[in-house]
Request: fold
Amino acid sequence: MIHELTRLGFLVSGRGSNLQAIIQACKDKKLYAEPAVVISNNASAGALDIARSESIPAIHISRNTHPDIDQLDRAITETLQQHQADLVILAGYMKKIGPVLLKAYRNRIINIHPSLLPKFGGQGMYGMRVHAAVLAAGERVTGATVHLVDYDYDSGPILGQRQVEVLAGDNPESLAIRVLAAEHALLVEVLQDIIKGKIILPDH
Reply:
């Protein structure tokens, strides 16, 4: 167990549905944690609005605020540390994580991916591209994967997966709806297992 109430830092780029699911799980006492800070590279991200509505610190940090990539990396890391984040959750974050952040939060950065990794992962595989690739490959089962983040895209150790059946007549949009529901449930489940000590993170 990290400690009694684990503080979660979030990196987001979009609407924030995974963020919302985690916030609700914390409220419902299904997740023994508290959101500490939400950082987005997109100043107009819906996830920032969600954070503000919940009185969670919501901060825009991007190449617009920090043109130098090394300064950007340090700014994100320092903001997470200032808000005492224990774990970092990538909730639809569309940028690669920098080396400063990876070192500071080694084996403490968690990502959710909309496929059963190692299938349909890697650079450029995100959002509807993943679901379109699943359908094009004729897969009968897809799903969601929660994994630790390392220096390569979608390649860190897998912490949990949940399967979703591919239905006849599915298109990327219909498949995405069901996979997203699986993402929400799986992410909360894995985080709670980490907090309760059922999943032991490396070097912890």
